[in-house]
Amino acid sequence: MTLLSDALFSDVMFYLVAAVMIGTAIATIMAKNLLQSAVFLIFSFVGTAILYLMLHAEFMAMAQIMVYAGGVIIFVIFTILLTSHLGESALHIKLPRTFIALMISLAFLWVMVRFVVLTPDLNVATPTATSGYASLSSFALRLLSTGPEGFVIPFEIISLLLLVTLVCAITIARKFKGEE
Amino acid sequence: MNNFLIPDILLLALPFVVIGSHFLFPKRHTVPFAVGCIGFLGVFVMLNLLVLGETQTFLSNWKIDSFGVFMREVLILAALLGIWFSKDYFEHDADGKEQLHQLPEFIAAISVATFGGVTVVSACDLLTLFLGLELATIPMYALAAWNKSDPGGSEAGTKYILMGSVATAFELFGFSYLYGFSGSMKLAEIATAVTQNGTSPLLWISVLFLICGIGFKLTLFPFHTWAPDVYEGAPTPVTAVLAVTSKAVAITFLVILVFGPFASIHTQLIPFLSILAAVTILAGNLGALKQSRLRRFMAYSSISQAGYILLAILGPEIVAKSAIVYYLVVYTFANYLAFFVFGIIGQHRTEGFDSLRGLSKENPTLAIALTIAAFSLAGIPPLAGFIGKFMLFESAAEAKTYGLIAFAVLNNVIALYYYIQLIKGAWVDPPDENLPRLEVNKRQKFAVVVLTIGVLFVGVVPFLSENIRNILAM
Predict the structure, then answer these.
(1) Are B138 and A165 within 8 A, CB to CB?
(2) CATH number 1.20.120.1200 is the correct assignment for the domain at A6-173
């Protein structure tokens, strides 16, 4: 720790993790094999979890690993393995289209980098929130509190959203009498 | 004071009551429909009984102001007309597609989508605002694919969910930048941050993404390409609901953002919104010229209507909000009137312009109703559409965008041309003896007569629009 100060160390770590995340994200969409791209996605999600940890949001990090890296990806991999012929023939893309897409992406990247670099106060690695702001207990308290800092209404609306999605999905998927 | 929450809670309970009534009376198919109609009607009446004026806040996170109550009324009215219109499609085949099933769930999905609109207009923080928009959109994905026996419906649902997810991603990205810029989820605190630092690049990236995201949902020009396919493939009642409810929610979302957090950069936003409005109107009008299918035609017509509604956002807050509320009422009436007529025609015929032939001889009432709907959508005095468009243009004129208004008025001539195609089909074109006879049941007749009177009445009663503005200005 004598070689690098704490702030510099976390800066270096941030850029390292961010670079890995971007690399795996690109690998996710570039991979020819769907299974490979799902595996790359796991690494990208784990990178996000590490970023959360660096911001002292332990609960978010746990949720990220359990829900996304653990749950969603397993689901995706199951889906891919059960429908193995999916997407194999859809990879013939003509060159000009790739070229135009590349140009648009580069232009977009340029705008983003330029705009973001112009913004002051962005290169602060230490979290501005108070210590324990994103810990599990304060998180749960804020989620269910009715005060000005509380999120009870969005929390309840999410439950309604999930319920209606479930009802709609079952309605679309179920078979009714008369259908074989 | 807590009276203000009762309609919201009733609306929230309605989907469960409708589905529950189906479980209680599984043999009687009219019960859920009746419960749904009575529920919407009850909520609508209760909203009208509220004494407007002050902004009410509940749980520090749910605010109900006059604009909110007006938008609730518009959304409930649209939902009521939507289920009234869809009932027939659950009873028999129409437009060459099989009948729909699961009416209780259908009504529940529509009322949850309506509650999503209510959430958007009541939100005080970004999270609630975003969830409200999703709550209004996700049931629509399912509704578009409701007819399982129709591959076109599944295609429409898939297209809609793909484009909608992209739009959602854009919005979330914009929101995350907005949060990063202001450091707060609360709309009021974001507004303060925007006032202090209105030129920050982070803010403008977020504005860019938010406008792109909402452009998808509001079918503004470069993002409108999904609309004709989805409107064409979805079942006809869902198309009607999409054209009215989903547009009303999207425009409300934009109003909440533009006159809430972005109020202090409103003048800088005017050039972007003007360009979007102008190209949307033109694209919708040019697209509508060449259509032969009625629903595709209505899709392009609704794209250009979205452009016209966008004009109002250029003006100052009170004028803009009253113009939008009033125009949405007018648009709801006229659009549903047109859809009711198309629904009656499409029952035994294909939903195309050719099926309109000889309508004036066979059923003059329907022909008159269609004429009134078309003229109102085009904005011909003395119908409601004229006053509505007049108010939209007035709002834009307050921002001194006269060139844009002139462009929009000239575009109205194109719009008039294609709306007159409908009327020509009904009145001038020679009747086709091979077309099957039309059947009109009591429910449809009632709706057509009431909506026709509504479109005529709203246009010639001047105090309604004045009232809206006076209450909003309080």
Answers:
(1) yes
(2) yes
